[in-house]
Amino acid sequence: MNEEELVEYFRDQMRKDPDMASAVAAIRTLLEFLKRDKGETLLGLRESLTSATTCLTGVDSSVAVSSGGELFLRFISLTSLEHQDLSRCKKVMEERGELFLEKISMSRAKVAKLCHTFIKDGAKILTHSYSRVVLRVLEKAAGEKKRFSVYVTESQPDAAGRQMAEALRELKVPVTVVLDAAVGYVLEKVDLVIVGAEGVVESGGIINKIGTYQMALCSKAHNKPFYVVAESFKFVRLYPLNQQDVPDKFKYKADTLKTVENFSEEHPVIDYTPPSLITLLFTDLGVLTPSAVSDELIKLYL
Amino acid sequence: MYPSIICPTEGPDKKDDMQFDRAKSEGKELTKEEKQRLRKEKKQQKKNKEKKDDKASQESEKEKKPLGSAAPASQPPTQSTTQKAPSAVPAPAPVSVPASEAPVLADKPAKSKAELKAERRARQEAERASKQGKKGETGQQAATSKPKAPPNELQPVVKRLPEHIQVDNPDVLKKLAKKLERQQIPLRMDYGYKVSLFSHLHQYSRKAPLTQQVSIPSTVIHPAVVRLGLQYSQGIVTGSNARSVALLHAFKQVIRDYTTPPNEELSRDLVNKLKPYISFLNQCRPLSASMGNAIKYIKKEISNIPSQCKEEEAKSKLLNCIECYINEKIILAAKAIAKSAIEKISDGDVILIYGCSSLVNHILCEAFEKSRKFRVIVVDSRPRLEGREALRRLVQKGISCTYVLISAVSYVLPEVSKVFLGAHALLANGYVMSRVGTSQIALVAKAFNVPVLVCCETYKFCERVQTDSFVSNELDDPDDLIVTRKGKTHLKDWQEVPSLGLLNLVYDVTPPDFVDLVITDLGLGMIPCTSVPVVLRVKNVDQ
Predict the structure, then answer these.
(1) Which residue of B has its CA nearest to A238?
(2) How far is A72 from chain B (nearest CA, A)?
(3) pLDDT tens string A105-161
(4) What Pfam families does the entry give (chain A) (predicted)?
(5) pLDDT (tens digit, 9 = 90+) per residue, B365-423?
(6) For site-directed labelling of B307, which of A106, A237, A259, B35 has its Cα 20 to 30 A away?
(7) Which residues numbered 442-471 in B keep a CB inside 8 Å of some CB on A?
(8) In DSSP terms, which residues pair with B352 in a beta bridge?
């Protein structure tokens, strides 16, 4: 399976199910790649999978795609592959890959189950930009017959917040779109803030659409709880110390990375929120405090 | 994270949707439970015999409770996040020497050993029974959010404090004197007036090293150890890595010169031979956390030597172990840490360092060799002025440096992009124990929003918990603070002024909120400060 086929398959997956996380689509593509791979050695297989992941991040530069790919590789090779025969090994790896995929497709439902209890009746929620996980959580809460209203930030430059507002209107949830600059203004009215994440870093902080850091700082100043909902395949082995420390490859969209030479002209599309501003993280592993994220990562990687 | 297929020791009735760690822990518990059951049965039989003697001496032995249960008691509270380790520990703990630095209480000839043992066993039974009951509950929790809550210990006794922080208690001093007398090591006298807040710590004078009271040639203490003790007390060998390496080399020499006396086993006799050396070194200068861990490791290795092993073979095995330890935990760890740390050093950085940490110097030299462009600000403080040594090493490599004293730190911090600190030890609650002045630097850096990175090898992670710098510290020679300027020595007669006390602290603790990142080895790379207990837990499980 060469690069174009890979990219085509990936795009296809994204088209077929727009509700699916890009990381899940990437993992499906990698699984397909594994099935079609004609390599002879395990090491070669690992290398080709790594290069496939790199290729996919070239299409969609979000943190989740690279973290998902790394976790997939880790998960399938975590077992002791004692079989001498490569094809048997590959079979085992494929089975585990399918299992991994099955588990993560259920992760959003798990997160929603955990989080909707934190939304009380009559709550006013603030959220940022368009996040399918947050949508799922709010869907579940609405399904439980809870009455709440939502404020969504417009989230420029792509106005993704309006998309979120549309989706919420279909759920019959009262929603108001506010400007990104109005977060401080609106915070005294809200009870809690829920955002999604594109990536969860080792320190327990998150990488998300630009404007999240501001929102977190304001909620800290107003003493409002700041909740993050994220699936566990978004945990990534990065440790940024500040905004500057986030690698460039995540900051800009994939097309920008390829075409533009001088990044100082471009505006980054994501920012980093440090763990001190986050109250709780809802993941399919459970409800975690930011310091527990490192705990989970150590358990996985040590 | 993705359990069922990975874990081989999973019980048959627990399948999907179980967290990996719970599966792992329950698998291990099953096998350990079986072992405990066997042990329990054996002990029950013995216990029934001795139960009569036990009841009779129950009252008179109440004061001796700390002896037996302190050893198992010291383990569970510190390993607060696992139920597995404490259950495995109680049986060997009171029989072998408690591995911590807690001193062995002097023998009271009035009690018989059998009675004490029976007492201890009865207590262990009670503890284990209560733990079994608790295990049923704690195993069911879906506790993934936080590290497992400490099992409620029904210890009826107070946790015993180490003697080196109880200097103002005359009973403890008496016990220490007796112990040293038994080991034939001279007792070092405290020197000078101690500031009242720190009167519970030892304060020695450098002008009276312990070696003056040791007869030459010493029959009890190996000359390499005597030399080491002198090097420690005079400040010739300083820095936790240097002290640990020197200690291990001295012990290697001891092992080389050791011969097993007839009718003795190497594994037990050598450990007993090492005890007076450790007391001696402790008297010369209190042991550091890294040295403590190294000694624990050596003692464990020695006691694991099988009895049928020949002496030469055993000795070479031990020497090899020590070499490996030094290589893995110190030298290779430094390389691994440097590799991770270099990712955090970018071109144009201004890095602030404090004092002289061998690890931080190594990292900066490596980064410079990998052609990173940065400059360094070295902060120094009296009376040790260790920063000068760091400055010398960095300038020799060609790194551009600035040198300031700690009083100028808030002046210099606005231009700093990162702070790199070394550590003497990382405590189990995430606090960083380091040279005095470190927490000050971390505090000011936090106020200026400058990231603080602590670099520390995993062998310095210790299970102690401390929240302030008072309870356990080291007091250096107060005469070091006396300085002669322009021909005048103002503090020369400080002892004669009754209200004047000189305080020369060596360590302080930095809370984890001030530290942004800990860089360590063992494949962990960068972890937040709050994950130190996780690493300790995982390390203990591995061992």
Answers:
(1) B526
(2) 11
(3) 888 899 999 998 999 999 999 999 999 899 999 999 999 999 999 999 999 888 899
(4) IF-2B
(5) 999 999 999 999 999 998 999 999 999 999 999 999 999 999 999 999 999 999 999 99
(6) B35
(7) 451, 453
(8) B377, B419
Contact at CB, B528 and A237, closer than 8 angstroms: no
- Measured between beta carbons, the chain B residues lying within 8 angstroms of A103 are 2
Closest Cβ–Cβ partner in A241, A245, A298 for B531: A298
A109 touches chain B (CB under 8 A): no
CATH superfamily of A111-301: Translation initiation factor eif-2b; domain 2 (3.40.50.10470)
The 10s digit of each residue's pLDDT in B319-352 is 999 999 999 999 999 999 999 999 999 999 999 9
Query: Structural domain tally of chain B?
Result: 2
Backbone angles phi, psi at A152, to 5 degrees: -120, 135
Query: Chain A contact for B147, CB < 8 A?
Result: yes
CB contact (8 A) between residue A202 and residue B526: yes
Q: Are B72 and B99 in contact (CB under 8 A)?
A: no
Which of B249, B174, B240 has its CA nearest to residue B474?
A: B240
Q: Are A238 and A202 in contact (CB under 8 A)?
A: yes
A287 touches chain B (CB under 8 A): yes
Contact (CB<8Å) B5/A99: yes
Q: What is the CATH number of the domain that holds B236?
A: 1.20.120
pLDDT score at B141: 41
Q: CA dist B406 to B12, B80, B211, B482, Å?
A: 61, 37, 35, 19
Chosen domain end from B273, B297, B331: B331
Q: Are residues B275 and B178 in the same domain?
A: yes
Give B162-184 pLDDT, tens digit per residue. Answer: 777 888 888 888 888 888 888 88
pLDDT (0 to 100) of residue B426: 93
* A208: phi then psi, degrees, rounded to nearest 5: -150, 180
- What's phi and psi for A229, nearest 5 deg? -115, 125
Give the CATH number of the domain where residue B518 resides.
3.40.50.10470
Q: Does domain A3-106 have CATH number 1.10.357.140?
A: no
B494 Cβ under 8 Å from any chain A Cβ: no
Spell out, as residue ranges, where chain A has pLDDT lower than 70. Answer: 1, 78-84, 301-302
